[in-house]
Design brief:
Layout: E1 3-10, E2 14-22, E3 27-28, E4 32-33, E5 38-47, E6 50-54, H1 62-72, E7 80-82, H2 88-91, H3 94-100, E8 106-109, H4 111-121, E9 126-129, E10 134-138, E11 141-147, E12 157-161, E13 166-170, H5 190-205, H6 211-221, E14 230-233, H7 243-255, E15 263-268, H8 273-287, E16 293-297, H9 305-310, E17 317-325, E18 328-329, H10 331-343, E19 349-356, H11 362-369, E20 376-384, H12 389-406
Parallel strand pairs: 6-7, 7-8, 8-9, 13-14, 15-16, 15-17, 17-19, 19-20
Antiparallel strand pairs: 1-2, 2-5, 3-4, 5-6, 10-11, 11-12, 12-13, 17-18
The structure holds MU-OXO-diiron.
The site of MU-OXO-diiron (FEO) has 10 residues, from helix 2.
Length: 407
């Protein structure tokens, strides 16, 4: 049984959080390693005889969710359900909730969410397709539905309450992990939490990250950001003191704002030859006062790819090391590069080092990728077997050049 939080967040307007702590999912979307877990946050709002539920949670927690919901209200008394996004981590418990509600509630969502809900669950009930920026008066409150396409699917919207400066963000503002408390004011290590937010952005929204500044611009033009006081996301911490701080972090990750002297090294090494090349590069970086972040894929280690991707947006430069495998790149390198192109394709200077047995593949493979890879490989050095004295000199020279370009 999952831990479920049911807490009142505000008296006026009367808002509760229902948070499911999921420490069972090891691979979010069946791919991203999340030993830190994830939460699914839904919210309940009561206003003059009307009760609005915002989102639900993953389907496997339907019973836990209904139990928590029933501790607050009789589900039959829910008059409105807002579905911001059809992805099942937020909509999975919806069929059970509607069943318990006896399909009395109006369901508000975008036309695409409606289509997806029907496809996923054969949802019955009073589904209302909203229009972008549509305002609805419910009880004493005016709710404004604002479409935020591609954050994270094309169907996505948020709900804004202008009078109180509150956003129900769903994926907008989300982060991985199971925080020890509900809101950011009680988070002891906000930098650590921001890393989980970065990881969430890169792995989940990364492919669509150009829509982050686009949607933020839209919210700014609508006056939402200037008036923002509270951000209630669908994952992770609630932001009720400095919500803009979180959105600024989102924008930084989307734009790939670099951290000074953050050098990321990612490499695979089957028999230690690439390892020797990388160690020369590390030695040169250290001689220049730079301590890199290193991920090594070897016969003894396989770090999570989600961590590697997390370290890309704010890096100032990258050094890759790839061994040659069957006249191509190592399978790990192939997967890594394809996921970088898909999720973390930032314009960063980089150096590529490689080792081969009888025929090199590094330059050819990088050339093949160059059309889609935004990372700018300033030099690719590949050697047969171990690096020799001349190779060492070239690696050191290239690292120095990379340091200059990273500034
Ligand atoms: Fe948290 Fe796109 O779902």
């Amino acid at each position: 049984m999952a831990k479920v939080w049911v807490e009142k967040l505000f008296d006026e307007p009367e808002i509760y959080i229902l948070r499911i702590d999921d420490d069972m999912t090891r691979f979010f979307e069946a791919v991203w390693e999340i030993p830190e877990g994830i939460t699914y946050n839904a919210y309940l709002l009561r206003t003059r005889g009307e009760t609005i539920l915002f989102d639900t949670c993953k389907g496997e927690y339907s019973e836990d969710f209904l139990k928590a919901l029933s501790s607050l209200i009789d589900p039959k008394t829910i008059t409105h359900v807002v579905v911001h996004h059809a992805e099942p981590d937020h909509s999975g418990a919806l069929p059970k909730v509607l069943e318990a509600n006896e399909y009395r509630a109006k369901i508000w969502c975008t036309p695409l969410t409606k289509k997806l809900l029907e496809a996923f669950y054969d949802i019955k009930g009073d589904l209302k397709s909203i229009e972008d920026k549509e305002e609805v008066k419910i009880g004493e409150l005016k709710l404004k539905f604002i479409c935020t396409p591609w954050l994270h699917w094309p169907d996505t919207m948020i709900t804004y309450i202008p009078e109180n400066g509150i956003i129900f963000g769903c994926d907008v503002g989300g982060g991985y992990s199971i925080p020890e408390d509900i809101d950011e004011t009680k988070e002891k290590d906000i930098d650590r939490y921001f890393r989980y937010v970065t990881k969430y952005i890169v792995t989940v929204i990364g492919h669509y990250r150009k829509y982050i500044p686009e949607n933020f611009e839209k919210l700014k033009n609508l006056g939402v950001l200037d008036n923002l006081k509270v951000l209630l996301p669908g994952h992770g911490l609630v932001w009720r003191k400095e919500p803009l701080k979180l959105l600024e972090h989102y924008a930084k990750v989307a734009l790939g704002e670099k951290t000074k002297d953050k050098f990321l090294i990612v490499y695979d090494s089957m028999y230690g030859f690439v390892d020797k090349m990388i160690n020369i590069a590390i030695d040169e970086l250290k001689a220049n006062g730079i301590e890199p972040v290193v991920y090594a894929f070897t016969d003894k280690s396989a770090p999570p790819l989600s961590d590697v991707l997390t370290d890309i947006p704010d890096s100032s430069a990258i050094i890759f090391g790839f061994s040659t495998y069957e006249a191509g790149l190592h399978p790990t390198a192939r997967y890594l590069l394809s996921e970088i192109v898909d999720k973390a394709n930032y314009e960063k200077p980089a150096l590529a080092l490689g080792s081969f047995g009888w025929a090199g593949a590094l330059k050819r493979e990088l050339q093949r990728l160059s059309k889609e890879l935004k990372i700018n490989i300033i030099e690719a050095i590949e050697v047969s077997g171990r690096p020799k004295a001349e190779d060492e000199r070239r690696i050191r020279e290239s690292v120095k050049k990379l340091i200059q370009l990273s500034l």
